[in-house]
Design goal:
This protein is mainly beta. It has one domain (about 10-190): Galactose-binding domain-like (Jelly Rolls), CATH 2.60.120. The protein is about 0% helix and about 45% strand. The protein has no helices and 15 strands. It has strands at about 1-5, 10-20, 30-35, 45-50, 60-65, 75-85, 95, 100-105, 125, 130, 140-145, 150, 160-170, 180-190, 190-195. The chain is elongated, with a radius of gyration of 19 Å.
Length: about 200
């Protein structure tokens, strides 16, 4: 069981999941150049995955929550998933960017009796709409929250997994391949430094 060390306060940290973490979905985001390399070495362009709302580009990946997850004695654990993203090229004014996330989760265990079960249908969250403005937005590092995921503490544990799909929703009005998804991560609270035993 996680232990709280030294009376330190509970704090927030990230469970990380890059959009490059897995093979893109059936409608695959395409690699786009974000920063062009100098003529001295043209092979060193920095590329990201460009999303297109017209094909509902999707990215599938998973996040494992580390052993420092804070587990209260009772109640719920709150996770705060959010999307890191940027514009590949300057968008037109008044266009919208809407990210969508579906997820399932389960805690892990070494015995069948204690193992969590992944849901047969995912939960789906839609982030707040971002509307482009008359300002330089290209290559800005933007973060958009999906809202809270509240889970009963009994269904949480060290090394629990979130398996997810993220996409640029089809209701977005941004032009094709103007937006790059960079990273999905889940904020969660930490209190202990780790676990006493290896798996639970």
């Amino acid at each position: 069981m996680p232990v709280h060390q030294g009376g330190n306060p509970v704090a927030w940290t990230d469970g990380l999941g890059s959009t490059f973490a897995a093979q893109p979905g059936a409608s695959a985001p395409s690699l786009q150049i974000l920063s062009v390399a100098s003529p001295a070495d043209v092979t060193m362009d920095v590329k990201v995955l460009g999303f297109n709302e017209n094909t509902d580009d999707r990215q599938h990946a998973a996040i494992q929550i580390p052993h420092n997850l804070y587990l209260p004695a009772s109640g719920n654990v709150v996770f705060k998933p959010h999307m890191h993203w940027t514009f590949i090229s300057e968008p037109a004014d008044g266009e919208t960017v809407i990210w969508k996330l579906s997820y399932i989760y389960a805690k892990g265990a070494t015995t069948l009796a204690n193992a969590g079960t992944f849901a047969s249908a995912p939960s789906i969250l839609t982030a707040a709409t971002y509307t482009t403005v008359a300002a330089a937005e290209v290559r800005k590092h933007l973060i958009t929250a999906f809202g809270d995921v509240t889970i009963a503490v009994g269904d949480c544990g060290p090394s629990m997994l979130f398996i997810y799909t993220v996409k640029l929703d089809g209701t977005s009005t941004i032009a094709a391949s103007k937006v790059a998804g960079l990273y999905v991560d889940f904020h969660y609270q930490v209190g202990p430094l780790g676990t006493i035993t290896e798996y639970v």
